[in-house]
Structure formats: structure tokens, C-alpha cells
Amino acid sequence: MKIAYRIAAWLIVGLGVLQVASTPRFFHGFTPSALWLASGGIAFVLTGTLNLLNRTYGREARGVRWASSAANIVMTGFIALEGVVDHADAPELVIVVGLMGVATPRR
Asked: How far apart are CA 23 and CA 37, in angstroms?
């Protein structure tokens, strides 16, 4: 389970990096929509990083575990809502929401 958690955390970071890096491809100017897309990627990177910190220090620092769980729950809800509003394809939505669900620490 520790390996799956580490992989999920790194995938979340990677998804965020990919989202930030792809922003110029979808937006050719510095617009509010471009900033919104990039900020979502930054949120992914920070959430994944928090999960990596939890994996390393979670036993000793319970606040990190709590913050990681809270971030994952909020991000999962936000991603699901955004996917429904944006009419995301079901496989895309299942993969991203599932990834956040796997990363949510238990206990």
C-alpha cells in the first residue's frame, strides 16, 4: 500500500506539472482562463507534494496527515464538480477522481 500511495502522489504531481506545461498550448495569451488552468495545475502539484510529505513524515507529524487528507478530499470534490460542469468524459473523470481517492490517507 505504501508503494501505491507513493506512486499516486507522484502521479498527482506529474498531472499538475503537465497541466501547467500545457496551458500555453490551449491559451495563446495571458488570460484569466489561462491563469485558472495553470492554478489548477499548481494545486495538483501542491497536493501531491503534501501527500509525499505525509508519506515521509505522517507518523511523526499528525498535522501533515490531517492536512493531506483534507487537501485530497477537497480536491476530489472539486475535480468531480469541475468534471460534471465541464462535461468531462467518464474515463477521464474516473481516472483523476480515482487517483485522488487512492492518495487519500486512511487512519
From this structure: 6
Q: Which three cell numbers stand for residue 54?
A: 505525509
pTM: 0.86
From the CA atom positions of the chain, what is the Rg in Å? 14
Give the whole-angstrom CA distance, residue 41 versus residue 58.
24
Q: Are 38 and 19 in contact (CB under 8 A)?
A: yes
What are the pLDDT digits (tens) for 24-76?
Answer: 999 988 899 999 999 999 999 999 999 999 999 988 998 999 999 899 999 99
Cell reading at 1? 500500500
Contact 55, 9 (CB under 8 A): yes
Confidence of residue 105 (pLDDT cuts 50, 70, 90): low
State the cell numbers at 64. 501533515
